[in-house]
């Protein structure tokens, strides 16, 4: 997800640079597009990405633990069934 967002923003940046070179670019006078606001937005998004990645890692670990427990339980049941 982060990679897609980065790629999209890089394409947009390249497009804006090309427009600026051609003289077609008009800077948006909208105040929310100033550098400090955008930096804050990027920081917030980075924090959200890190939190989601940590959450994903936690769930992956839980899945691996449960998968291992199921695997051992199935092996124990199969061993018990073959011994009878």
UniProtKB/TrEMBL annotation:
Domain of life according to the entry: Eukaryota
Keyword Phosphoprotein: yes
Example GO biological process: actin cytoskeleton organization
Entry's localization field: Cell junction
Major place of residence: other
Domain Angiomotin C-terminal residue range list: 1-83
GO cellular component: bicellular tight junction; cytoplasmic vesicle; plasma membrane
Record key words, sorted: Cell junction, Coiled coil, Phosphoprotein
Cited InterPro entries: Angiomotin, Angiomotin-like, Angiomotin_C
Family: Belongs to the angiomotin family.
PANTHER family recorded: ANGIOMOTIN, ANGIOMOTIN-LIKE PROTEIN 1
Name used for this protein in its record: Angiomotin-like protein 1
UniProt organism field: Ophiophagus hannah
